[in-house]
Amino acid sequence: MSLVAYEDSDSETETEKTEAPDASGRQTNQLSSPVSCVQHFAPGNTKSTREMHPAGSTGRSGSSTVCEDPPELYRITEYRIQNNNTDLAPPCWQRVYSAHAASSVAYRNYEQASSSSTNSGNGLSQKRAHKDSTTTIKGIRPYIPKRLRQENSSKPDKEPEQRGSSDCDVELRVSGEQTWRKTSELIKPYLGSKYKVTEVPKSLIFYMSKHSGPVNEIQWCPVREQSHMLLSASMDKTVKVWDAVDTGCCLKTYSCHSCAVRAAQWSSCGRRILSGGFDSMLHLTDVETGKQIFSSKTEFRISALKFHPTESNVFVCGGFSPEVKAWDLRTSKVLRVYKAAVQQTLDILFLPEGREFLTSTDAVSRDSADRTIIAWDFQSAAKISNQIFHERYTCPSLTLHPKESVFVAQTNGNYLALFSAQRPYRINKKKRYEGHKVEGFAVGCEFSPDGTLLVTGSSDGKVFFYNYHTSRIIRTLSAHKEACVSAIFHPVLPSLLATCDWAGEIKIWQ
Questions:
Q1: Is a pLDDT exceeding 70 seen at residue 3?
Q2: CA–CA distance, 312 with 290 (Å, rounded to integer)
Q3: For 329, which DSSP code?
């Protein structure tokens, strides 16, 4: 509480001038009343007292006599201030009222000129009060409603929360709307339980057509809690992130490439996107800000990208070149170079634990298709095998089974071939998944999360579902009019499927 002193003076005492700011902020000189009001702020003092100094009356030590005002003074003076009437007040109190009236007017003018004031004696600041509040003798500081006090007290607590927010709570701003990267309500019930049996989707949920060119690749976010986001790379030079579970809207578009984007991959943390295109550029983009964390120009057009399964800062890229390169994002340098007598790398597949990886190439000899699929040792960059697939077809895509040590290669012979994922990577001649068409398109294929189904696109726009164990067609879905180049199951939600085609359309099925 504040301590207020009032100093009485007789007619011979010179009147003091009080400066009070007017509404425009300029200082004006006003004659003070016979009683000068001085505010004293005493930390820890909870009782308001008044120091009355009659003319010539001081104590022995020179200090003024302290006395408490009568209760009637508070009530009557407060009433007179509110009603601007002093006729009924005793003569001895009219001087006190006139002093408070002047100080009240000065305080109101000061409140209109500035939002806060600082006491020069002790550095404490006063908060702005309502214009309708009235200063009384008993309470020098104006009354602040409880609602405003709660708002002011909560402001300092909100700012540290916003500044200290984690990287996972990324805010995406699209067309003035805010979409937080929080777990979708549709995904939450499935996070604590095992993946159920996959069923073939039947109905169309979302139809998304923001791309103006063919979509080359789509991928769900690998972070299960944020797997409502879908990544797409297109020939229209852009990479997009979609909310493909709740709304079907495009969350953000990244236009960092000057040519078609052939490949794009989520980082393992779901905060960054690695992309490569026909402009020979590699970009690692921050999902929230859209800024490039890493950029590098290669000697060839990029057609395939894959992150290392255990080393999150390492990736492998290939394209229109006989070389495949491994990069380290921490140093922005090439770690290793894998050389082969080929012209182009079509796809890259890491085997479990990341010690070995496979590359699909366009090399076909006269008698056999050796070097079509090459197995590499990641650490030594040595070839493990180049005699895996012996038929005269190139393989535009490779995919690994989620539970068994096998992988599947999409071939331009209009069938899927099954291989062992362990040395010597032999082909399974008893199983062949036939019925769909490839016809030169980079048609992708993938297993369901439980490994029971194998899904692939087709050049005629259909989606084929195969039983993995029997290799029979379970169902065919007429998904697109143009070539369907990719079909992928959601990693958490059972039977949720995303497809894309050569016309730039993306569809979500369930």
A1: no
A2: 20
A3: T
Nearest to 22 by CA among 110, 131, 127, 101: 110
Structure tokens at 358: 């496979």
The tokens for 326 are 């491994």
Instruction: Round to whole Å and give the CA distance between 344 and 301.
Output: 10
At residue 405, the 3 state secondary structure works out as: coil
Q: Looking at per-residue confidence, does 293 or 70 come out higher?
A: 293
Residues 476, 244: Cα–Cα separation, whole Å: 22
Between 509 and 192, name the one with better pLDDT.
Answer: 509
**pLDDT score at 368:** 52
Q: Which helix (H) or strand (E) holds 17?
A: strand 17-21
Helices and strands (H, E) in the chain, number of each type? 4, 38
Give the Å distances, CA to CA, from 83 to 87, 396, 461.
11, 90, 84
Candidates 447, 449, 388, 451; CA nearest to 420 is 388
CA dist 373 and 363 (Å) reads 9
Q: Which two tokens stand for residue 112?
A: 């209109």
Distance, CA of 370 to CA of 367 (rounded, Å): 9
Per-residue pLDDT tens over the stretch 391-420:
889 999 999 999 999 999 999 999 999 999
The tokens describing 283, both together, are 């970009």
Instruction: Give dist(CA 216, CA 457) in Å, integer.
Output: 12
Q: What tokens does 346 get? A: 């079509």
Of 63-72, 76-85, 148-157, highest mean pLDDT: 148-157
The band of 195, judged by pLDDT with boundaries at 50, 70 and 90, is confident
Taking the C-alpha atoms of residue 359 and residue 155, their distance in angstroms, rounded to an integer, is 56
List the structure tokens of 223: 């972070």
Compute the distance between CA of residue 174 and CA of residue 454 in angstroms, rounded to an integer: 36
What's the rounded Cα separation, in Å, for the pair 279 and 89? 89
The amino acid sitting at 405 is S
CA distance linking residue 223 with residue 11, whole number of Å: 84
pTM for this predicted structure: 0.66
Question: Is the sign of the CA dihedral 420, 424, 428, 433 positive or negative?
Answer: positive
Contact assessment for residue 404 and residue 422, using Cβ atoms and an 8 Å cutoff:
no
- Greatest CA span in the chain, whole angstroms? 125
Between residues 351 and 72, the one the model is more confident about = 351
Q: What is the pLDDT of residue 474?
A: 96
Residue 96: predicted pLDDT: 40
Is the Cα dihedral 257, 261, 267, 271 positive or negative?
positive
Least confident of 92-96, 328-332, 358-362: 92-96
